[in-house]
Each structure stands twice: as structure tokens, then as C-alpha cells.
TrEMBL record:
One of its GO terms (molecular function) is DNA-binding transcription factor activity. Residues 5-73 form the HTH gntR-type domain. The keyword Magnesium does not apply. GO terms for biological process: negative regulation of DNA-templated transcription. This is GntR family transcriptional regulator. InterPro entries: Bact_HTH_transcr_reg, Chorismate_lyase_/UTRA_dom_sf, Tscrpt_reg_HTH_GntR, UTRA, WH-like_DNA-bd_sf, WH_DNA-bd_sf. Keywords: DNA-binding, Transcription, Transcription regulation. PANTHER family: MANNOSYL-D-GLYCERATE TRANSPORT/METABOLISM SYSTEM REPRESSOR MNGR-RELATED, MANNOSYL-D-GLYCERATE TRANSPORT_METABOLISM SYSTEM REPRESSOR MNGR-RELATED. Gene3D superfamilies: Chorismate lyase-like, Winged helix-like DNA-binding domain superfamily/Winged helix DNA-binding domain. It comes from Virgibacillus phasianinus.
Length: 243
């Protein structure tokens, strides 16, 4: 558990991982509060807080008199393509962009990262933690993971400008495709400390997997955007003749 993470946030993340990995399948009855209290050795209040957040975020559904069930998977929408960097998008709106590096660490790959990147468990991965700001106000908190054998030794200067530009200019890796999943989440204590917001603030949560021209996955990231500070534009092109 992250030392800055509350107990209920840890339990929520653990349960969410199990839901996303289909350990708890959609439509299946979820363990009761008492069962989870025994499994995690925590109080009922802690478990209830985690379950409430998962319900508000659409991962669980409660049926009166029947219990709690795993909700159907969310509908996925594809965002439009853009080659503009964060700084370019902010500057064109008349705001001053800023990227602040929180930390760069080399960590062992977990089972979760193995599912998203071409690594084995315990392989070295660079964990890059950053906050993006516009006019001095935090708008995005991001954790990016890049395998060491793909781009060893990412520096602070590279992390505080553009990781994708660094991959291209310093490591000759061109990002040719990204796959992004977007959801809504609520800010917990840890997220609030980075985004300088109140607990419970709705945030956009985006998971991204970046691939090079050969289709090799080179980066996996998790980003949280303040819902009161950001919005997204979706632009679709419809070729002539298609219905």
C-alpha cells in the first residue's frame, strides 16, 4: 500500500483491480461488507466507504433486499486524434503550461503492469509521477510507466517537458498509436494533495497505452484530470458514403 494512501482508498483500488481483471465478473453478487471486513481485517466503516465510492463510480450496483452486484462494463468511447503536446494545447488557450516532476523511481514490474506492457514480473520499470498545471493551478496528476530496457535513464528535464518527445529525440522511439480508456472517478485524499482540490471532486480518469510503429507497447499511464478544470472535445470524421 502506498504510504500516502488511506486504508479505504487501498481497499477500493484492490477491489477495482479484481473487478477489472474479471476476478469478480459482471452480474455476479459481490462479497458482503462483513466478508470484506474479515478478508482485509478492517472496520465496517472502512469497507463501506470503499464500496460507496465503487458504487458512485459505476463499478457496483446495489439492489434493495438482494445485495450488491458487479455492474456491467462501461461503454467505451474513442477520443479524436491530436498531435499537439500538452503545452501547445494550453498555450493556444492563452494559459501558461507547467509540468512539475514529483518523482522518478525504478520499480519492479507487477502483475498489473505485465498485463499492459511487454515485461515480466520484477523487470525494472521507470515510474514517472508528474503534475500538470495551467496558470499555476493543477489540472492533471499522472503516473507513467516506461520499461527500463526501452528508454533507460529518463531525466528530470525530459520528464518536465515531454516524455513522448524525449522518447523520439533521445531514444529513437516514435509513438505511433495510443489507446485511451476514460472514466469518471472521485478524488480521494492522495489525489486531493496533488490536485489541490476537495475530497469527492469528480475527476476524469484516463488509462493510456502507447505503442511504437511496430505495435510494441512502450508506455502505460494513469492520469487524473480535475473535473472542474478540464473538459474534452471529441471530433469525428465521417467518410463520404458511410452511413
Amino acid at each position: 500500500m502506498d504510504k500516502n494512501q488511506s486504508l479505504h482508498a487501498y481497499i477500493k483500488d484492490e477491489l477495482l483491480t479484481r473487478i477489472k481483471s474479471d476476478e469478480y465478473k459482471r452480474g455476479e453478487k459481490f462479497p458482503t461488507e462483513l466478508e470484506l471486513c474479515k478478508a482485509f481485517n478492517v472496520s465496517r466503516t472502512t469497507v463501506r466507504t470503499a464500496l460507496t465510492q465503487l458504487t458512485l463510480e459505476g463499478y457496483l450496483v446495489r439492489h434493495q433486499g438482494r445485495g450488491t452486484f458487479v455492474a456491467d462494463k462501461k461503454v467505451r468511447q474513442t477520443l479524436s486524434n491530436t498531435v499537439q503536446r500538452y503545452s501547445d494545447q494550453v498555450e493556444v488557450q492563452g494559459k501558461k503550461p507547467e509540468i512539475t516532476l514529483i518523482s522518478i523511481n525504478v520499480v519492479p514490474a507487477s502483475e498489473t503492469l505485465k498485463q499492459s506492457l511487454p515485461v515480466n514480473v520484477n523487470d525494472p520499470i521507470q515510474r514517472v509521477e508528474r503534475v500538470r498545471k495551467a496558470n499555476g493551478e493543477p489540472t492533471q496528476y499522472e503516473i507513467a510507466y516506461i520499461p527500463w530496457n526501452i528508454a533507460p535513464g529518463i531525466t528530470q528535464a525530459q520528464a518536465e517537458t515531454s516524455l513522448y518527445a524525449a522518447l523520439k529525440d533521445e531514444f529513437e522511439i516514435h509513438i505511433a498509436k495510443t489507446t485511451e480508456h476514460i472514466e469518471i472517478t472521485l478524488a480521494d485524499e492522495q489525489l486531493c494533495s496533488h490536485l489541490q482540490c476537495e475530497p469527492g471532486l469528480p475527476c476524469f480518469y484516463i488509462e493510456t497505452i502507447a505503442e511504437d510503429e511496430s505495435g510494441k507497447k512502450v508506455e502505460y499511464s494513469r492520469s487524473y484530470f480535475r473535473g472542474d478544470k478540464t473538459n474534452f472535445m471529441i471530433e469525428r470524421n465521417y467518410p463520404l458514403g458511410e452511413k
